[in-house]
Amino acid sequence: MATSTETIRTEYPLPSYNYRVEIGSEAVAFSEVSGLAITYAFSTYAESPLAAQAGSKWSYFPGQMDPVAITLKKGVVRAVSIKVLYAWIASIQTNLIEKKDIYIRLCDEKGDPVISWKVVNAFPISLSAPTFDAASNDAAIETMELRADFISLEEV
Predict the structure, then answer these.
(1) Residue 151 maps to a domain
(2) Per-residue pLDDT reduced to its tens digit, 26-44
(3) Nearest by Cα to 122 from 144, 93, 154
């Protein structure tokens, strides 16, 4: 029996290559996004053993959320690289840190968003130039690293 299109749409994993990134209100194409992780620090508490128990009893408790570190990679594009990324990180030099919400939207086969990761109050901490190699014909890829307050997940 053949699998229906609706079954494929709802029960099959989405491919990771079909995504869109929005920085503030501007869509920017990136070749790679990594670091979308929600993690918490935890505390360990040891209690003395009871009479019928051998060894210490360990309990774990959640703590504060770990800092969010996002890495974005993209090809150097004249109209975007300086206007969007460099201008954003250059604003830190004048002590005017502009924090922005970033959306990473995983899309279906039609290009419609299905799941969105909202990176809240992100700001750049580094912008790395591409590696230059005269023996290569690869695209020049720049890397921007961000820190943020937290990540939320939204189903569209």
Answers:
(1) yes
(2) 899 999 999 999 999 989 8
(3) 144
